Amino acid sequence: MDISTLSFLHHVFKEVQHKQDWKTALDTLFVSLRDSFVFDNVVIYLEDPRAKSLDIAYARAMGRGKAAEADAAWGERVASDVLSSKKMVMKEPRRGSHEQNRMTQPHLLGMPLSIASKVSGALVFVRFGGPEYSDLHFQIASLQAFWAAALIERRELQEARAELDSVQRQMRLQDDFVSTISHELRTPLGFIKGYSTSLLRQDTKWDDATQREFLNIIDEEADRLTRLIEDMLESARLQSKTLQFKFSPVRIDALVRDVATRVNTHHPELKIEFHLETLPPVLGDGVRLSQVFENLFSNAIKYAPGSRLTIGTKSLGKRVRLSFADKGEGIPEDFLPFLFERFYRVPGERTVTGTGLGLYICKQIVMAHHGKIWVESELDVGTTFFIELPADPTL
Ligand code: ATP
Ligand code: MG
């Protein structure tokens, strides 16, 4: 091999290696070597071990106008021959066939793709017309097969790593959740136990007002426990998709007002401003949608204390959009992508309690309505949650 070939290969190798996306890397690989090895189509077949079939993982047409996918059928026989023999397979047209039949007389060359030391795919080149494949072509094709297999392996590793990252994150969240939840359960239990023990003390006589105050605290803390347990059950049901929804036409603007009134009786300090457009009804579960709004109100109270909450509704033809905007501290951008995950809470000093289930529940409910929920936030400016739901299609 001479130095110029070597430096050319080196250059190609670098180019291919730099491409992040495996399909673009394959494009570069095949295009760069096409001067020395001419073909019209190239297809990668990968074995699907479960379905026991060959899937087209990549296809590209280089010449002669035909679509790569349509031509991929040419290579399927060759690909299965490669997989069963684990060797290079070549199918040349019969000698002496007519030049005008060129498009029905492909030269096919199949190379085994060895992924994780097992032949589990085939790289098939198709060429219409031209001379027979030479030794040099075989060498180049085998080099490309080797390279393509490495790229596919890299893709599989990347996918596996992404999956592992998400599982690890979920496990960390579950760990945090156990400590959060024990704290969350203990706090109300502590109150209930403390105040009921005080009331039961034989040696102390509490006046009526104090008794009422203690009983009120016990009552509220018991409610808090119930809510917590309901949230946990709800999120488990939502995750296992066993929660039942009862859909009927719902007037979102009226519903959000009702929830706001209810929230205000418990939290008169929350100032709510409405910018409501009249909306077409949506097909929804009113109870579940109220739950979504309740969590958004509760978050505003907890994480943007003292701020006014502005609620807007907008009709977008076939969809309706709601927005809940506070003027709180905002959420750093890095944390925004995780907000709707189960158990996720923005890390940092914590004074407010919570389990990180609220927004997860919101998202699952909105998704069950074929809608979407998202957040925009700017530090020291505020946070806005948006919800979009499809309008009732039967009306
Ligand atoms: P739960 O709702 O289960 O009681 P939570 O409020 O901590 O607990 P989510 O409602 O899922 O859980 O919210 C997740 C996190 O998002 C919160 O812990 C908080 O850090 C952040 N967050 C939510 N809403 C706001 C907001 N309006 N402003 C700033 N941060 C917010
Ligand atoms: Mg919440």
* CATH H-level superfamily title of the largest domain: GAF domain
The CATH topology assignment of the largest domain is Beta-Lactamase
Q: Which structural class is indicated by helix and strand composition?
A: alpha+beta
Alpha plus pi helix count: 8
Bound molecules: adenosine-5'-triphosphate, magnesium ion
**Count of the domains:** 3
- Sketch the topology as an H/E string, one letter per element: HHEEHEEEHHEHEEHEEHEE
Q: What is the CATH C level class of the largest domain, in words?
A: Alpha Beta
Which radius of gyration do the C-alpha atoms yield? 32 Å
Mean pLDDT: 90
Secondary structure: helix percent: 40-55%
Kindly report the spatial arrangement of strands forming the biggest sheet.
2-1-5-4-3
Largest sheet: 5 strands, antiparallel
- Gap from first CA to last CA: 74 Å
Name the poorly predicted regions: none
Total beta strands: 12
The proportion of residues in beta strands is 15-25%
Anisotropy-based shape? elongated
Any idea what the CATH architecture of the largest domain is? 2-Layer Sandwich
